[in-house]
Structure formats: C-alpha cells, structure tokens
Specification:
By secondary structure, the protein is of the alpha+beta class. The protein has helices at 10-21, 40-43, 63-71, 84-113, 121-142, 155-170, 176-179, 181-191, 194-197, and strands spanning 2-5, 27-30, 51-53, 59-60. It is 55% helix and 6% strand. One of its GO terms (biological process) is glutathione metabolic process.
C-alpha cells in the first residue's frame, strides 16, 4: 500500500499517524497537488490528498475513510471504538477538528492566492471565527481529561494533534497554547509519541 500525499498536509499526517499507531507499513509517495504537472487526479478525481492506493490498485479517499480503513487492518491500538455511541463521539470530534483545518485552508488560500485588492477580510474573519469557536469547544470538552475520549489514545486525539500542529505551522498568530493550556498539555504529550515525532511537518 502507499499513501499519496505531502509532508505539510495535516490530513495526510493524520492517516500516516494512524498507520504508525496500528503498526501497519505503508509507503508515502509525495505529490504537490498545486503544481501544474500534478497527477493526483488519476487516483482521486477530486484532486486532493491523502489518497491510499491498495495492493490491487484501488484508490481510497479521503482522510476519514482512510483512517477508518486502517483502524480495521490490525487489532493493535484500537483507535475507533466499536460501541456505536462511543464511535459517533470519536468521529464527531474528528469532524470538528477536520473543520478547523478546512476553515484554515480556506482562509490561507484567500490570503495567498487572491490578489490583495480582491481579498475579503470578512471571509477570512468568518473562517478564523470557526477556528476559534472549535478550539473553545475542544477545550471545554477535554477539560482535565488525559485524552479526548475515554482513557486511551483514539482517532480524536490524533486528529486534534495534527490540527494543532498545523495551526502552529500556518497560523502562529492563533495563540491557542496560551488560551487553552489543556489543549497544549495534550499536544505536548502527543509529541512524545514516535508516530507524531516522525511525521512532524517541515518548517514553512
């Protein structure tokens, strides 16, 4: 199997960490989806990463689908609970955290792709508001708990760590570490895991 992706995408990092935690080997094929000569559409018509290519050539996307597929490949370190209510809680947390990254990417594209005179500050503010609201919700739900859900690492923690790391990379002006020290405690704990250390994105 191989993952088509980039080193800075938080979605790619999420699935790479899941495979690492599951002790399942998978190759990484680097692809810049923004380059004119990108070939990602051959595997994913949406032109997005990550995309998982199975042994028989079938392609699986997006990150939520890949993470769920990977979790079923090995009994090691179950990351998505079997119980339907707990499963929904973990997947809802993942959706919230993915929403942070979705909003961040939209804000970043507005700032970096559109000419300055055409940029909409209202649009950027709306996306940044989504990020702040989500961070506040995450902090309130986490409270003083050691993990996002239950008493061990789950997909919720992995997704959270990837989003927080990406915010540090792309939006250092969002001072979430100061605002929400409980999120920072979780983040620092996740950084001690080999799966996170080995997938830390290069500096911008």
């Amino acid at each position: 199997m191989k993952i088509i992706g980039s080193l800075t995408s938080p979605y790619v990092r999420k699935v790479r960490i899941v495979f690492s935690e599951k002790k399942v080997d998978v190759d990484l094929e680097l692809e810049n989806v923004w380059a004119a000569d990108t070939k990602i559409a051959i595997s994913n018509p949406l032109g997005k990463v990550p995309c998982l290519i199975l042994e028989d050539g079938e392609a699986i996307y997006d990150s939520r689908v890949i993470a769920e597929y990977a979790d079923a490949l090995s009994p090691v370190s179950k990351l998505i609970p079997a119980d339907s209510r707990e499963r929904a809680s973990v997947k809802t947390w993942e959706a919230l955290v993915d929403g942070i990254m979705d909003a961040g990417i939209l804000a970043r594209l507005e700032r970096t792709w559109r000419p300055a005179e055409l940029q909409s500050s209202a649009w950027v503010d709306r996306q940044m508001g989504k990020i702040q609201n989500s961070l506040r919700q995450m902090s309130e739900v986490l409270g003083e708990n050691a993990w996002c859900h239950g008493n061990q690492i789950t997909l919720a923690d992995i997704a959270t760590g990837c989003a927080l790391g990406w915010l540090l990379l792309r939006f250092p002006d969002v001072k979430w570490q100061v605002q929400y020290p409980n999120l920072d405690r979780l983040y620092q704990k996740l950084l001690q895991r080999p799966s996170f250390a080995e997938t830390e994105p290069p500096a911008a």
